[in-house]
Specification:
Distance between the termini: 25 Å
Radius of gyration: 15 Å
CATH superfamily: SMI1/KNR4-like
Strand order of the largest sheet: 5-6-7-8-9
Structural class: alpha+beta
Number of strands: 9
Order of helices and strands: EHHEEEEHEEEEH
CATH class: Alpha Beta
CATH topology: SMI1/KNR4-like
Number of domains: 1
Number of helices: 4
Largest sheet: 5 strands, antiparallel
């Protein structure tokens, strides 16, 4: 497990997080909130994690939570309403338009899932891990192809 270093993030305000909680009706987990308050929109390094059926998925960046964000959490939810499962709150993205989400399917619990934008609703959801902190623990540096 490598220590995660965040690049290019900006601080967020607690009010921004509270606005997302009000709009979604979900209480966001403290490990995620603590991170986004310091690293809003930041890019993690290392940045790769594995799914059961896909290796080296890139966690490109946290979605911004502030109202000034052009394509932040609330805007993404608005644009994908009806496609993204209602229990999912997008918190990050990969370079290809897929999302890393908090999933509130189980009452009282929150898991991390990956949503493939080429599939609709729950068909595009893959389980990643039990919490945001564990996702950070899973991150590793992807290997570069030979000859680069």
């Amino acid at each position: 497990m490598a220590e995660v270093v965040w690049r290019f993030g900006i601080p967020a305000k607690r009010e921004d997080v509270e606005m997302i909680e009000q709009r979604t009706g979900f209480s966001l987990p403290s490990d995620y909130v603590d991170c986004v308050l310091k690293n809003n929109g930041g890019r993690p390094h290392p940045c790769a994690f594995d799914l059961e059926h896909r290796k080296a998925v890139v966690f490109e960046a946290l979605l911004r939570v502030d109202a000034q964000a052009g394509l932040g959490t609330l805007r993404v939810m608005e644009l994908l309403e009806g496609r993204l499962p209602a229990s999912a709150v997008p918190i990050g993205r990969d370079p290809f338009g897929n999302l890393i989400c908090l999933d509130f399917t189980d009452p009282g619990r929150c898991a991390i899932v990956f949503w493939d934008h080429e599939q609709e609703g729950v068909q595009g959801v893959s389980y990643v891990c039990v919490c945001f902190g564990q996702l950070l623990d899973l991150l590793y540096e992807p290997r570069q192809p030979s000859g680069m």
